[in-house]
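User: Could you check the structure of this?
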Amino acid sequence: MKRFVVGGLLLAIALPAFAQDTAQADWEVLRDPRHKSVVAFIPVTSGLTLAVRCVDGSLDTLIAGLPPVPTGQATRPLHIAFGDKPLHETNWNVTTDRTVAIADYPAEFARNLRKGGRMQVMIPGGAGDGRNLRHQLELSPSSAAIAETLTSCGQPLEDPRDALLPDIDDRGLPAGMNWARAPRPRYPNTNYAVGYAVVTCVAGADGALNQCQVESEQPAKSRFGEAALRAMPNARVSSTTEPTGQITPRLIGFRVNFYLEGYQPRGTPRP
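Assistant: Sure, the predicted C-alpha cells are below.
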C-alpha cells in the first residue's frame, strides 16, 4: 500500500522496501491534481524512504524512517555525502512525525538525489546504544520523477549555487566572512505563531546582499519567506581578508526562525 498525507509538515508513508535498491528504472511518482501535488519517492532496503514533494508550489525534500527524536526538538543534524565526497553536516527540520525530517535546502538536495548513485547518511546518536548510525545507500537515478517534481515547483534542474552551499557554516556565511549588519526580519502578517524561512543571497563586492531567493519555508504560504527577503537589503557582510569594495562575491545562506513574542515552543532554536 502507498499512502501519502499531503499538507503542513506531515508525510505519512506506509511503503514496502524493495528487494534491491537498484531494482527500478526511476523513482515512483504520486500525483494529486486536487491538491496540486507531485511526490517522487523511493524506499531503500535500509528502511529509509526518500521523497521530493511539491504541493501547490512549495517544495520539500524528506527522509522518513529515521530514529525518532525527543518531543520538542525542532531540528536535527544529519551528515550526508554523495558519491565519493566526505560527509557534510546538514540541518534538517523535524516534523509532527518525529521519524521524518525536511531539508533546509530542498531543491539542492533533490538535484543531488536525481543523479542517483552512492549516498551516505550518518545519524548522530542514532543507534540504540547511542552510537552514530550510518546508512550506505545505492540509489537509482531519477531521469523523470524528480525532474517532474522540481519543475512542478518552478525549480531548475541545475543550479550553480549548489556547489557553493557546503562552504556555508552555521552562521550562514563562508569562512573568512562576518556579519557587518545581520538581517533583522519583521514578523509578517500571518496566522502562524511559529515557523522558519531559509534564504540564499550573493554577497557583492561592497558587502551588500543581492540575488536573494527563498530556499524553504514552513509552514508553506506563511509569508515567513517574504519577511526574510524584505530584511536582506539592509544586511551587510564583511571580509577578514578583503577590504569592503573588493570582496569576492560569495554565496551566503541564512535561516530565520520566527515565533510570536512570548511564544517559543520547547526546542525552538533562536533566530
